[in-house]
Amino acid sequence: WVILFSYPLDFTFVCPTEIIQYSDRAEEFKALNTEVLAWSIDSQFSHLAWTMQARNQGGLGKMNIPLIADVTKQISKDYGVLINDGADAGVALRSIFIIDPNQNI
Predict the structure, then answer these.
(1) What's the CA gap between 4 and 58, in Å, rounded?
(2) For 14, how many CA atoms within 13 A lie in the half-sphere containing its CB?
């Protein structure tokens, strides 16, 4: 099983809570034969900077789940979560996909 989720951007004030909770419970998910993966449209360098920032300062701190850099926005397009119009055009919506072992969403 895979839990695949997206969040709009690194360094936003709402997203860290959810991401940190998934990360902190990664071993529990692994015990259920489930991998957790997160993505945003930010680069791997932005992800790294966010994980280097302390949690009590709005950062993620140490992560136990991968943060995927969707800089081409292909993942966001493929999963239908890329905003195409308006002020937030080019940003991925918050989303979560649960994928079974047969790759059914």
Answers:
(1) 23
(2) 6
Using CA atoms, how far residue 102 sits from 40, 68, 74, 80, 87, in Å, is 25, 22, 22, 20, 37
Sign of CA dihedral 90, 72, 19, 49: negative
Rounded CA Rg of the chain: 14
- CA proximity to 44, closest of 9, 69, 70: 69
pLDDT, one tens digit per residue, over 25-39 is 999 999 999 999 999
State the Cα–Cα distance between residues 47 and 31, nearest whole angstrom: 26
Q: What is the tens place of the pLDDT at every residue in 60-84?
A: 999 999 999 999 999 999 999 999 9
Catalytic, 97? Answer: no
Choose the catalytic residue: 4, 5, 15, 69.
15
- CA–CA distance, 89 with 101 (Å, rounded to integer): 33
